[in-house]
Structure prediction request, 188 residues.
Amino acid sequence: MKSEHFIHPSACVDDGAQIGADTKIWHFCHLMGGARVGNNCILGQNVFVGGEAQIGNGVKIQNNVSIYDSVVLEDDVFCGPGCVFTNVKNPRAFIERKSEFSTTTVRRGATIGANATIVCGLTIGAYALIGAGAVVTKNVKAHALMTGNPATQTGWVSRAGLRLNKSLCCPETGEQYQLVNGELVLKA
Prediction:
């Protein structure tokens, strides 16, 4: 039997929005028609989801985050409170640029820290960790730890989200990683 989702009475879910099983949508959220939200997600207070946004399974979006059109969050992504996604590179109030939305993709298991800003048109690699307040202006490799403004890579993190030591071993899980052509991969 398929489980139902929960929608708080103060939330606004427009006709045509798709919401997966066991998803919870909390106070004052707004989902536009056409928005797609997967199973087992949590959308905290005051989250906006555009009509062409895509949210995978197991995604957690904290309070005060807007997932605009052309933003794709794959499975198990975490968006910290107040993080920001843009969707136009050079916005002007007096020029309509909806046809110029740039797709931003956040790959599986990545974390965007509180108040971080992700400039549109980028890809955040799987299991990457964007530090709180970072401003991401370029593509991010899988497992990269990005901090600062503009964000720079300051280390590598495991699938568990912990900084890897010099031997590229996760201190919690013991998983061993290796660098292959500048990319971090789990050793077989």
Q: What stands out?
A: The radius of gyration is 17 Å. Residues 25 and 43 are 5 Å apart (CA to CA). The first strand starts at residue 6 and ends at 7. The chain is about 0% helix and 30% strand.
